[in-house]
Amino acid sequence: MGVGWGALTNLCGTGGGAAEKGRRRLPFATEKTESHDIRNELEKLQVIEYLKNGMKNKDLSEKYKVHHSAISKIIHNKDKILQHKETMEK
Predict the structure, then answer these.
(1) Which residue ranges does the record assign to the HTH psq-type domain (predicted)?
(2) Is residue 73's pLDDT more than 80?
(3) Whole-angstrom distance, CA of residue 20 vs CA of residue 37
(4) 68 and which of 33, 54, 61, 63 could share a cystine (Cβ 3.0–4.6 Å)?
């Protein structure tokens, strides 16, 4: 007895995706830029500083060549990033 296709797609998390509903999937990085990760602690602190000075999420994602969700994750984890900075300075 095998696993049905529906059960397999539910396990993989691919059931009901955009392609199956006839919509086009959007790439994570824009076509004019390559994908890049903000892993460096200094870059994360710079992003937080730019945000404090009023720079927009979209502008930062273009500057660092990342998807806007990467900037959103930094915003979401801002307290942890700043706390880690304080711990490293001690």
Answers:
(1) 43-83
(2) yes
(3) 29
(4) 61
